[in-house]
Amino acid sequence: MLDQKELIELSVGDEFTMFLIVTKCELKTAINGKSFLNLELRDKSLAFPSKVWDNAEDYAKKLKEGTVVKVAGQIEDFKGALQIKIGKINPAKESDGVKPEDFLPRSTRQLNEMLDELNKVISSINNPYLSQLVETIFSIEKLEQYSKAPAGKGWHHAYIHGLLEHTLEIVRICELMCAIHANLNRDLLICGALLHDFGKIEELTYDTTFDYSDKGKLIGHIMIGALEVEKTAVTIPNFPEELKNHLVHLILSHQGKLEFASPVEPRTLEAIVLYQADELSAKTNAYKYAIAADRNKGGRWTRFLPLANTALYIPDENLDSQK
């Protein structure tokens, strides 16, 4: 177990010496023609940009994505964004006893607790065709990948077990909507919630850093998931064509709009609910972590978040206890 402070605990001006992992490493050329190394360094709590200006070519040979490094540096504010000013940086030694997985962020929820919740959801699906399809897709091997994968590279639930956590949040929202609107097809909607991001187990890599696989870049998680349903449904005798089409539609439309890379837009009640549930889970998680990341910056607002198209207000941590 790695015993050191976390980046999220540090404030502007704090100096530190700690182990971090390289999650981005690009050799670039500045306007003046000088080479520099553009880095992103992280621990379980945060990722910060950084640069190496001296001997950049030499460092580029030693550092790559997934390299664990020992860094002596300082947290600084550069044009409103926090970054690491590097004093020294070198690859960690084997004797340091640190591994890449020590630096990957993880869900704060217990895995066993989430797996129990997932199994209860799967067993609650009454439609025999959907029940068999989900149980077939969630084989032991696929379940292991599904329960480990992040839900994204960096925007929301971007941590180990994040996909499972995100999915269970969506299931809860969908269950609430089914309790309010009895005409929703509950089994179809829950099945769609379980499978909407299933393709991310192949779209993303998450052994040393979070990135997109070749298959993920070429096909994407939406199509991977839709093809998995098509492939599995064929193996189930007499699987209703219309039911399969509605389930595939949930997967294809869950990102809501064509400009958000959704092949089709939601055209059923269940698809609209799934899209909105996905949005609510993803944005709440992303905004929560953005606020936590900038809390120690010293201001009342986060940096501008391009995906949110705004900065976010940082509330007082003791606000709930004030009377």
Number of strands: 7
Strand content: 15-25%
The number of distinct helices, counting runs of at least 4 residues, comes to: 11
Counting helices, strands and paired strands, the structural category is alpha+beta
CATH architectural type of the largest domain: Orthogonal Bundle
User: What's the rounded overall pLDDT mean?
Assistant: 90
What's the arrangement of strands in the largest beta sheet?
3-2-1-4-5
Top CATH class of the largest domain: Mainly Alpha
Q: Please tell me the total number of domains.
A: 2
Low-confidence parts: none
The biggest beta sheet, please?
5 strands, antiparallel
Rg, Cα atoms, Å: 22 Å
Helix content: 40-55%
Spatial separation of the terminal alpha carbons:
40 Å
What does this structure look like?
With 323 residues, the protein is α+β, with helices and mostly antiparallel strands. The protein folds into two domains: 97 residues, OB fold (Dihydrolipoamide Acetyltransferase, E2P) (Beta Barrel), CATH 2.40.50; 176 residues, Orthogonal Bundle (Hypothetical protein af1432), CATH 1.10.3210. 40% of the residues lie in helices and 17% in strands. The strands form two sheets. A five-stranded antiparallel sheet has the order 3-2-1-4-5. A two-stranded antiparallel ribbon has the order 6-7. α5 packs antiparallel against α6, α6 crosses α11 and α10 runs parallel beside α11. The protein is elongated and about 65 Å long.
Please outline what is shown here:
By secondary structure, this protein is an alpha+beta fold.
Descriptors:
323 residues; alpha+beta; OB fold (Dihydrolipoamide Acetyltransferase, E2P); Hypothetical protein af1432; 2 domains; five-stranded antiparallel β-sheet; two-stranded antiparallel ribbon; 11 helices; 7 strands; elongated
